Amino acid sequence: MATIYTPKQQRVLLITSIIIIAGFILYGLSGYASAFLGAGILYVVFRPWFTALAIKRKWNRPLVTTLIIIFSLVVIILPFLTLSLLLISRIQYYSQNADDILNLIHKGEELTGFKVTSPQNVRQIVQQGATYASRLLPSLAGGALNFIVIIGLMFFTLYFMYVQQETFQKGLQKYLPFKRDTQRELGESLKNNVNANVLGQVLVCLVQGALTGLTLWIFGVPDAPFWGVVGFFMAFIPVLGTPLVWGPAGLIKLSQGDTGQGIGILVVGIVVIINIDNLLRIMLAKRMGDIHPLVTLAGIVLGVPIFGILGLVIGPLLVSYFIVLIQVFERDNRSLEQEVAVDQVRVQEAAERET
């Protein structure tokens, strides 16, 4: 029996059906987007290891992939989860005991003579901040089963991305709606962003967090390890970063009459911690993807509210992809204009020859 649709209508309905089904799939998997994004990040991070062992030395692929997964679990996931849980527990403590923060604010008001806000507003801000931070960071308290599913799905995806690497890459090349040169630029942008915002950034943040915690411990600030962990997470924010931790600590020490300790914290922060940050970024920029600080800052503001802690990487990546696609669009338009100009010249020359 003949169909009632024309070939053009069939094509339109086929595309519409694909879009609708894809929309349902994306909606159903939206809660696990961090698992797929995390798998992609780990794939880029450990791809040189996989290439060296499984491709060049011909080691067993499933074995190499399993070793990479175990290494990433032990060295990356578990320590990061521990830091997150430590930070969340202390944030929850301060949200439930806002008097400690109120005392610090009152001392700051006495030092500056400027009234910040009412105690009720401070308590509300602290509680809202604790809720927001707890939502961004991975926590078993938010659902152990959901956390296990996300981690399992991430490693499951990573396993097949490595074991079936050629099929995975061919699929990307086939179905991505970009030219090969554009795909190559997007891949280079992904590698630079992961290197700069994962490997390089985490290294810089670890050094800054450790120096912040050590500095506060030396000068007698309570809960120095906790504030070192806070410094690690704050260091992801360009320009501001750890000064948001050691700056208030130094001012509080000054307000308490501990002038030597307060000045010491501020001097070490300005002379050592900030300069170490700048020095490490300059050294790592040449080796680990040179990403402009504005791209990183805009990406963090964009990505963190959407993707949580993974937004520290995904946000700058989206901004970089946007810039790359704009450059590709500009280059293609320029090439098209040149082709049109050449065609016009040829038409004009042909017309002149006929006359």
From TrEMBL:
Keywords: Membrane, Transmembrane, Transmembrane helix. Its main location: membrane. The chain crosses the membrane at residues 12-29, 67-88, 144-163, 198-220, 226-251, 263-284, 296-326. It comes from the Bacteria. It is found in: Membrane. Belongs to the autoinducer-2 exporter (AI-2E) (TC 2.A.86) family. This is AI-2E family transporter. It comes from Spirosoma soli.
